[in-house]
Amino acid sequence: MYLIEQKRLLERLRAVLQENYDIQAATLAIEQPPEIRFGEYALPLAFELARRLRKAPRKIAEEIVAALGEVPGFAGFEVAGAGYINARLDRPAAAQSLAAASTVSAPEHPIHALVEHTSINPNKAAHVGHLRNAILGDTFVRLLRAAGQQVAVQNYIDNTGVQVADVVVGLMHLEGLTLAGVQALMARLQQEQQRIDYYCWDLYARTSQWYEADPEQKQARKQLRLDTLHAIEHGGNDTAAIAELVSTAVLRRHLETMLRLGIEYDLLPRESEILHLHFWDAAFELMKAGGVLYLEAEGKNKGCWVMKRAGAEAVTDGPDEDAKVIVRSNGTVTYVGKDIAYHLWKFGLLGKDFGYRPFFEYPGHRCWITAETGDPDHPHFGGAQAIFNVIDSRQADPQANVIEALRGLGFTRQAANYTHFSYEMVALTPRCATELGYEVSAEDAARPYIEVSGRKGFGVKADDLIDRLIAATQAEVDSRHPELPLAEREDTARQIAVGALRYFMLKFTRNTVIAFDFKEALSFEGETGPYLQYAVVRTRSIFRKADTTPEQSLADIHGIDTAPFLNGEEGDSIWQVWLRAAKTTLLLEQCIETAEPSYLARHAFQLAQDFSNFYRKHHILTEANPDRKKLLLATAAVAQRELIRSLALLGITAPEVM
After folding, report:
1. Which CATH number does the domain housing residue 40 bear?
2. SS3 for 81-109, per residue?
3. N or C end of the chain: smaller count of CB under 10 Å?
4. What is the domain range of residue 170?
5. In this structure, how many other beta carbons lie within 10 angstroms of the beta carbon of residue 167?
6. Burial of 240 (0-12, 13-18, 19+ CB in 10 A)
7. Is 516 part of any domain?
8. 299: alpha, beta or left, given left = phi > 0 and alpha = psi -120 to 50?
């Protein structure tokens, strides 16, 4: 509804400008008045035209209003202040339209999008920072699918990287284990119901500290790390077998952790296959043939294959000292080089493919993993038209260089459809760190946040966080609803905990550092997930007591004249709920266009606030006027419908009771 009226107004304005002033306007600004009593839209158009037409803005505004005439869906237009044009919707007609609106899925979009998110190194348990990535990525997938896009979800697994090598060093040299010993360790952990990802969390921190513990051994230990890394990359040896065994077990734990938050994947591409299937060799030939790479003959990068860094000017005198190294002088390929090869495959430009085998079963579909050879009946992967990579902002330079390589190879359309969906880190408040048992210095205690560090073992494990949130909400649910069966109370606590966590991670804009705090995340008041869930629970209570349904209430509005109840000051608080509810589709489009899910989170919170204000002011169940009561029930119904819709896009469900 909201979009239809807006589009009609814009079309009429463009026609007026063309007919009266011979002006073609591609874009026109639409603002919202400071108070709803002034109308639904405020148009600053006259101010923009004043210099061009050499007239006072108010005079231009008066001319435009006189020329607009009747616009379907609008009750009228008026000039305000020094030249604003206020537009008033036909509230009864708009409410009828919104009540009848369907929430079925959008028609299928021709774009095949690929979203990569989570991508945790499979060397230890997931932590609170990883949750921000996964929740952002999963929410964006939900937004794209709601808009009708075909979306494949990938979770890149760096199973041959230095972090995995560090855990292997710890197992082989700190713990003194062979391949058989590691197999026995994993069997014992499983028998004792201990978690491999938690075991590796501690081992990884110990190994990182071991490298630095003895200055005389530091160089030898770092060489051991490098030798271990090379053995893993090469494959076909016990060191690589240990890495495969442990990283696969940790990966399975990561998937189980994310599933607790409703997060699922379609494919797990692994770096080991990118190496062993020689993806880089194919990309290397393409880049050399396309002139993207060149062999540096002098300067600090002598003997390296390099490319011009993204955004840099071409150097014509001497070596480009700022060039991006893709292949080192010893022949090893950098992270960016392997990433370029991977993204050529994502776009279907490499001429090579993985093997695939089933890995993880979800309730509704199967997740596949890459392999050197695999199941011939696998689904098709890759060949995307648009790519979104959810990777933190510290990876901006590598991401920019992948895009630069695509452009250099002539794949300009693909480069334009490659989005680095960046975000800032998640840290801990000093209070949160203290609650977790960490020693916080006086200097750190005065800071707004403390950065987590996996190498130091400093942080919040994702599952510990989820468990703690569920335990806190379980106690609250048990005290409020002891009459409910235990299974129902547990499911209610889980829904509230997941809603609290997901909303906490989504309410901040992506470029904001999050300082995580248990007290704030667990709060049931203010801008929180539980506050939104409670608004839905309240609407359900209304319909139970009224002995009707939201669907019936929305249908009943078509048989009454709502104008006496929607117009005027008394009707503003009712109309505010309808107006806010009408914006959900607009917010969905804005979130996709800007890759910013926080806009929808904010919209859902504002809708819950508007409904709460409406609920306090209007006594729905005891309303004496039958027509007005139908409108009030329909208002609760439209709020419920759009709240549930918005929450679903955020990955949040509302329980029956709270």
Report:
1. 3.30.1360.70
2. CCCEEEEEECHHHHHHHHHHCCCCCCCCC
3. C
4. 156-264
5. 25
6. buried
7. no
8. left
Q: Are residues 161 and 71 in the same domain?
A: no
573 DSSP assignment: H
Q: What element of type H or E holds 153? A: strand 150-154
Q: Yes or no: say if 169 and 225 are a contact pair by the CB < 8 Å rule.
A: yes
> How are strands ordered across the β-sheet holding 294-295?
294-295, 305-307, 324-327
- Under a CB-based contact definition with an 8 Å cutoff, are residues 392 and 423 in contact? yes
**Alpha-carbon distance values, 36 to 2, 61, 575 (Å):** 15, 20, 9
Do the beta carbons of residue 342 and residue 336 sit within 8 Å? Answer: no
Q: Is residue 37 part of a domain?
A: yes
Q: Any idea how long the chain is? A: 658
Whole-number pLDDT of residue 407: 95
Residue 649 in any domain: the answer is: no
The CA-based angle 472-516-643, given to 5 degrees, is 70
Phi then psi dihedrals of residue 563, to 5 deg: -55, -45
- The C-alpha angle with vertex 253 and arms to 341 and 343, in degrees rounded to 5, equals 10
Q: Please identify, among 215, 245, 264, the residue that sits at the C-terminal boundary of a domain.
A: 264
Residue 40 lies in a domain: yes
pTM higher than the cut 0.85: yes
Joined together, the tokens standing for residue 499 give 């809603």
* Ordered alpha helix ranges (H), 507-625: 518-522, 529-546, 550-556, 563-566, 568-581, 584-594, 598-617
The DSSP string of 409-472 is: TT-HHHHHTEEEE----EEE-HHHHHHTT----HHHHTSS-B--BTTTTBS-BHHHHHHHHHHH
3-state secondary structure of 569: helix
Which pLDDT tens digit goes with each residue over 310-361? 888 877 778 998 999 999 998 888 989 999 999 999 999 999 999 999 999 9
> 426 near 516, Cβ under 8 Å?
yes
Is the pLDDT at 105 greater than 60, yes or no? no
Report residue 602 as tokens. 């904010």
d(CA 645, CA 463): 27
End-to-end CA distance of the chain: 32
Q: Phi-psi category of 333—alpha, beta or left, where left has phi over 0 and alpha has psi -120 to 50?
A: beta
Tell me which residue of 589, 637, 590, 583 sits closest to 605, measured CA to CA. 583
Q: What is the pLDDT of residue 106?
A: 63
Tokens of 360: 């993880």
Domain end position, chosen among 89, 117, 135: 89
